[in-house]
């Protein structure tokens, strides 16, 4: 009987190194045939933003993302899964999120990474506030309807 995969989930203020995270997941492994990673960066919205500030409830965000990561492990035959989401003030060009899914075959890795990103974009418990370059109040960013629609295709067993 094989060991149950426990996904790595981290919510952190500090930046992360994408290559180091992938290497840490795959080092010494010969059962992995595919690694799919997605890294999301803060964009400057055509020069309008100086930063995006992400807030979360500590403990709740980790638990919720851990729950959906565990669902991904149940749905697809993964050999490794890492999800990192930053919080705090993030400047344009800096990392916000990383999903790394490893499997024996590419389809499972692609689908698991896609599933997780759809969840993170539409339902993860983070609140985003814009800091605008002109000094005006940027306000809180609403979730996009297109992200919610994309997430519906997965029809989560936990809903």
Q: How many helical stretches?
A: 4
Mean pLDDT rating = 89
Instruction: State the secondary-structure class.
Output: alpha+beta
Strand order of the largest sheet: 1-4-6-2
The total of beta strands comes to: 8
Our estimate of the beta-strand percent is 25-35%
Major sheet:
4 strands, mixed
- Give the uncertain stretches in residue-range form: none
Describe the global form. Answer: globular
Distance between the termini: 29 Å
Helix and strand run: EHEEHEEEHEEH
Tell me the Rg in angstroms: 16 Å
Helix content: 25-40%
Supply the key terms:
159 residues; alpha+beta; 4-stranded mixed beta sheet; 4-stranded antiparallel beta sheet; 4 helices; globular
Task: Tell me what you see in this structure.
- The protein has helices at residues 18-26, 60-75, 106-122, 145-152, and strands at residues 8-12, 34-41, 49-56, 78-86, 88-90, 95-103, 126-132, 137-141.
- The protein is an alpha+beta fold and 159 residues long.
- The strands form two sheets. A four-stranded mixed beta sheet has the order 1-4-6-2, sandwiched between helices. It has a four-stranded antiparallel beta sheet with strand order 5-3-7-8, with no helix packed on it.
- β7 and β8 form a beta hairpin.
- The longest helix is centred in the C-terminal third of the chain and has 17 residues, at 106-122.
